[in-house]
Amino acid sequence: MDQPQKGPLTGVKVLELAHVMAGPTCGRILADLGADVIKLERLEGEDCRRMAPPWQGEEAAGFLMLNRNKRGIAVNLKTEGGRKVVTQLAQRSDVLIENFRKGTMERLGIGYEMLAEFNPGLIYAEISGYGRTGPYADKGGFDLVAQAMSGVMSVTGEGPGRPPVKSGVPVADISAGLYAVIGVLAALHHRQQTGQGQRVDTSLFEAAASYMTWPAAMHFAGAPPAVPMGTAHPLDAPYQAFEAADGWFIVGAANQANWLRLVKAIDAPQLAEDPRFKDNPARVENLSALVEALTAIFKTQPKAYWTERLEQAGVPTGPINDIAEMVEDPQLAARGMVAEVQHTTLGSIKTMGMPIRLSQTPCVMGKGAPVLGEHTWQVLADELGYDDADINGLIEEGAVATV
Predict the structure, then answer these.
(1) Count of C-beta atoms within a 10 Å radius of residue 369
(2) Which of 158, 283, 334, 354 could form a disulfide with 162 if both were Cys (CB 3.0 to 4.6 A apart)?
(3) Which secondary-structure segment (H or E) carries 15?
(4) Which residues on adjacent β-strands are paired with residue 241?
(5) Quick one: DSSP state of residue 152?
(6) Cα 313 from Cα 293, distance rounded (Å)
(7) 170 near 142, Cβ under 8 Å?
(8) Where are the domains of the chain?
């Protein structure tokens, strides 16, 4: 009989006290890698449960995507019984994830120093708006604000003089969750060698700022501040979207070899001979003229015609897919990036898969997000040894809720 699949983090216990996106993203990735993640919510549920429509049944679609593979408990941290439950779970955990404002955990009696006295191996991951130190440490954090203050919005949009534009996806939230995972894995490795836990501190602001690699490199070299360029690149050309007869597609001829392949594929040898486009620096300097010349050619045929020709010539290219087209892409299907998990009340539901392939310890994609309080009774009984009378007492106190 086949043994159940075990991920690389099987045996790692994680307590997630996080809401909406950055913290739950960290928890979801650790859960996909096999960790046992217990998600703690308020009795009324975390905010993401109300970020809808759309709904799937009675569950918010976003919550389902962010919280798969976790066990869920509902606890009132304002009660003595609730705080005791969290303290006991933290003392038995390898990792704790939290994204409250600075000082909140300390006021509840579950700050890092307090918990580390009883669990010195605890890895305590804090994801905040700006980090736990510095002049902004007390501020709350939001993806939109982080995108603005980090400079990301200053280089996103159609061009100079146009209204600012944020990224269409929450890059600060998601990347902060990713950096937290990296920090947790590094801390787990350190603990394996030394037995010592530690704090992991990252933020939306810093995570978004880390995306400004090219603009920062240009700035440190004395260049003027980078500006929005639509889909174009400040250092390579042509490397952007172009309009065909029936829509838009991408051309990634960023180096000289691909440039020469491009002009050959589109039967435009005159462009290769034009001194304005002789090399990459010249093409970047004369980008407007380059785009005009290429667009005149590309608008004569549909995008499928051009992507086929460019692919045959070895020039990087691709269509600009909407979400419906993306999830139907055969490459994503082959890689399992559109997966299905089993939800307690909804049955089989679709979710975005895990973009990591491990040959010996594959990621585990099985359980859907928990119903509010779904595993409260189980966790209290199995993890903490509470009997029925203990649990019923906590319910009467208003310290916990169960399904």
Answers:
(1) 29
(2) 158
(3) strand 13-17
(4) 250
(5) G
(6) 20
(7) no
(8) 13-210+332-401, 239-321
pLDDT tens-digit readout, 220-236: 999 999 999 999 999 99
Calpha distance 57→343 (Å, rounded): 11
Helix (H) or strand (E) holding 307: helix 303-313
**What is the chain's mean pLDDT, rounded?**
96
Indicate the CATH number for domain 13-210+332-401. 3.40.50.10540
Which CATH number is 239-321 given? 3.30.1540.10
Rounded Cα–Cα distance for residues 79 and 33 (Å): 33
Q: Which residue has the tokens 């180096």?
A: 255
The rounded radius of gyration (Å) of the Cα atoms in the chain is 25
Give dist(CA 355, CA 93) in Å, integer. 26
Q: What residues have CB less than 8 Å from 44, skipping those under 6 apart?
A: none
Residue 52: CA atoms inside 13 Å, Cβ hemisphere, count?
Answer: 18
Residue pointed to by tokens 């203990």? 390
**Residue where the block lists tokens 């897919």:** 321
Q: CA dihedral in degrees (130, 132, 134, 140; nearest 10)?
A: 40
Tokens of 239: 């490397």
Rounded to the nearest 10 degrees, how much is the dihedral formed by the CA atoms of 222, 225, 229, 230? 130
The label of the residue with tokens 């579950």 reads: 110
Cα 362 from Cα 357, distance rounded (Å): 6
Inter-residue contact 315 to 261 (CB < 8 Å): yes
User: What are the tens digits of pLDDT across the range 257-283?
Assistant: 999 999 999 999 999 999 999 999 999
Q: Where in the sequence numbering do the catalytic residues fall?
A: 173
With tokens 């093409």, the residue in question is: 283
Pair of tokens at residue 161 = 């003089």
